[in-house]
Amino acid sequence: MTSNATTTAGLSDVTSSDAALRRFLHGLPGVDQVGAEARAAGLATRSIKTTAKAHAIDLAVRMVDLTTLEGQDTHGKVRALAAKALRPDPTDASCPRTAAVCVYPDMVTTAREVLGADSGVAVAAVATAFPSGRASMAVKLADTRDAVAAGADEIDMVIDRGAFLSGRYLQVHDEIAAVREACRRPDGTEAHLKVIFETGELQTYDNVRRVSWLAMLAGAHFIKTSTGKVQPAATLPVTLVMLEAVRDWRRATGQMVGVKPAGGIRTTKDALKYLVVVNEVAGTDWLDPAWFRFGASTLLNDLLLQRHKLRTGRYSGPDYVTLD
């Protein structure tokens, strides 16, 4: 599925021109579609022993970017979501907090008011004309700067899929690099940048691999599958290809980049399948919220129900968790 001998030769020069970047990206090992899907399917059958399941569920809770990205979002809904991120299960103080709350930029201040500065729960904001990415660079950069100024710890940007699919790779690279620069704060710190590919529109696994490397070359801290607005969203084979890319990037550069599947991951069973794939493909270093996240709005509720079942030995009704 991928070569373990990803070369570092010329990495510093591949973004010198469109032609050089194209040669590099099209020179990456091709993805064996049948092999990738078969391996993902095989890993999905792995079972997790009961003794490890409780740890895996808590880890999955800690990896959730609890998300609301609807036109009907209100400040009250965002406050409630942020409170849930801080105390997912009010009946159990041992339940860990989620990784982040992900909202539109105009809701960053509201989320920050609830989460505070040192709760350990980050505020993530979608930016750059989410979910379409169809805006001028001036608008995309202003969107990003506004979110960072409002207190966002993380920015989830969307790439211009039309530019990528047209082969305008250097344009996409330069836009990602410019957004990364816009994530910098006056004090020299920066918000972490997650780059969304909208893999459901990229057509092939080869394109997923290419865009993963493109984003990492441009300075992405995380690579992310989807906005959740296009189907298919996250899938195990696509995530496997992205995990191979970050693994090979680390081998080539010594740098770790995170991965975030988003959209369609709704059950504990699904989440545990992803954790198995992370462990088997990228390795245990990625089994940490600093390097792997779930973009989800409903996953947390099922994790809480399964967690309660392990703790008490009985299933609770759906009214045990809040409706988000």
TrEMBL record:
<comment type="pathway">
    <text>Carbohydrate degradation; 2-deoxy-D-ribose 1-phosphate degradation; D-glyceraldehyde 3-phosphate and acetaldehyde from 2-deoxy-alpha-D-ribose 1-phosphate: step 2/2.</text>
</comment>
<dbReference type="Pfam" id="PF01791">
    <property type="entry name" value="DeoC"/>
</dbReference>
<comment type="similarity">
    <text>Belongs to the DeoC/FbaB aldolase family. DeoC type 2 subfamily.</text>
</comment>
<dbReference type="InterPro" id="IPR011343">
    <property type="entry name" value="DeoC"/>
</dbReference>
<dbReference type="GO" id="GO:0016052">
    <property type="term" value="P:carbohydrate catabolic process"/>
</dbReference>
<dbReference type="InterPro" id="IPR013785">
    <property type="entry name" value="Aldolase_TIM"/>
</dbReference>
<protein>
    <recommendedName>
        <fullName>Deoxyribose-phosphate aldolase</fullName>
        <ecNumber>4.1.2.4</ecNumber>
    </recommendedName>
</protein>
<keyword id="KW-0456">Lyase</keyword>
<dbReference type="GO" id="GO:0009264">
    <property type="term" value="P:deoxyribonucleotide catabolic process"/>
</dbReference>
<keyword id="KW-0704">Schiff base</keyword>
<dbReference type="GO" id="GO:0004139">
    <property type="term" value="F:deoxyribose-phosphate aldolase activity"/>
</dbReference>
<dbReference type="GO" id="GO:0005737">
    <property type="term" value="C:cytoplasm"/>
</dbReference>
<dbReference type="InterPro" id="IPR002915">
    <property type="entry name" value="DeoC/FbaB/LacD_aldolase"/>
</dbReference>
